[in-house]
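Sequence, structure tokens quoted for completeness.
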Amino acid sequence: MDKQRIILLDEGFIKHKAIFSYIAQLKENREKLIQSENVSEEVARRMLEIKMRNNLIFIPKPTLTFMRMVVGYLKRLNVTSDDKIILAIDFGSWRKKLDEKYKQQRKGKREEKESNDFWMGIYKEFNNLYERIDPYINWNLCRRYLVESDDWAAVTAKVFTDKEIILCLEGKTKIKLKNGKSKYIRNIVKGDEVLSYNINDKTYTSSKVLNKWEVKKEKAVRIYLNKNKGYSIQCGENHLFYTQRGWVKAKKLLTTDIIQYNKENYNRWKHNSVLKFKQPMNNKENIYRFGYLFGAYTGDGYIHKKSKSIHIEVNDYDFLERIKMYWRDLYNYNANITDSTNGYYSLTMSSSLIFDKYQEQINRLKNSRPFKKGFLAGFFDAEGNMSETNGRLSIHINNTNLKLLKNIQIYLKELDINKGNIVKTSDAKIREIKGKNYKCKKIFRLNIYQTYQVLKFFNDCKPAIKRKYPKWNYHINFLSNGKRIKKIETIRCKYSSFRFHELELEKPHTYFANGLLCHNCSSDQDWQMLCAYENVKIFSPITKKFKEVKNPLGVLASKINGDISDNLLSAPSSEREFSIRNKIVNLLELPEEIEKPLKEELLNLPLKNLYVEKLPYKSVREELKKLYT
């Protein structure tokens, strides 16, 4: 193999990293002006422009940051004058003609930060930079219409087969290991096997750590699962967590979200089981039990004030099992469940002493939050039902007492479940019930429609009747192993920056951090498939190490089949879509009309010299002098 190395850098990756850094600094300075000068955001924007123009505030231009980053990457690779440097520049994409959705989300992400005019101006600055440096730098700036840096990398790997090709890409948290033990993330090393979770078949598995590195962030997100305790986890804004909405970035989590959570007894977990309520541990759980009994008896029970007994008759045995257990837990009273001839089950509590104590406790506890949760669960078991239609969940609670339903609606709002309404379902009329005619009152219905609100109700209130729970494994996953977010906050480091450890894992690319299911740090794997060529290596400037790619063809397969990708998020659903997807993501086999002109250009790359003094930016010139001497 030739001594000369071919070093190819992804211009788009480095450029956008520099731009986003510039935007973050602009935003920080605008926020300072808003606070100190007490002005609007628009006025602060104009004030900042004036201060920057008059050199009162210095923020490095993204073009300067870009040049420094490129030189920094080359320094870490110990580049020499013998090495050939290729800066692969994105210039549109032929892939968008095949699939309009290709990289469609990137424009939206950019415009979330700044306006379209801002981006057009920045891109123009970079075009001017390339025109200015191209005649005087010993790098080959490769650019062709509708060709991406991925295409340049793919063809470079094919053309220079006789040379070494380097493609340059970009503490307190406990990680659950395969054996069930935990280890601080700072102590995790390459080769460790962590507990992982396959979201497709809802099973626990293990995943080997392929890489680990440390990054610095100006902002961090703190997620609280308990209101009265400290934060449960602190992470970067773009860290992915698995919720009932799918994978969600930390900065976009809501207090209505339920995060998949790992319990200590994960080996016993079954995705088709309904959450069982814990045995009484503290007073809050006892209060919940009183609320549940009161809700159940309010819905379907009959209270005999003279005989001081409470009777209930229903057709769900698990409903009465819960009631029986609560009488035993609260008063050590053993109530028997009897099977009646009409297919119903009944239970009676007939102790006058317990009856009086029970009534006294109800009056004392009825305004507490745990009591209301229990009441909602008991009343739902008695009068409610859950329906699934086209993948959407809804809850319906019927009753003749409109005032009672309005009180229940208030209870639900206190639990942040407020997407519900009350409607009249029928007028008063004669109905036949169990062979007898009864005069029935008007019936009203309380409806809760949104799926995440329904999941929130089940997760917070925990009813007993299994048949009323969602049947989907996807939903049961969150009911049995979910943690609702109580509070989220984004904080900025006052003095320096936050340090985070990031992991790269084998499939299924997931792990548990402080019990919460996370995705490994997102990185573009497209270039990893090029490691199928023996002469290709991928260098990470973050870790300052070469990446070990054990199965490059597996990377290609996962891309085609719809694995998590920055460019295409959905899996192909037909043979035609599969064919298009293969053409888009397969860097090992580019279309001939794309590959042929790139080969010709790469084989005829000119020998370029470096004229340091004619390059822009004094600091960059000094660094280049050091690099090549």
The chain has three domains: 2-20+61-170+527-627, 174-263+484-503, 283-468. The chain has 17 helices and 30 strands.
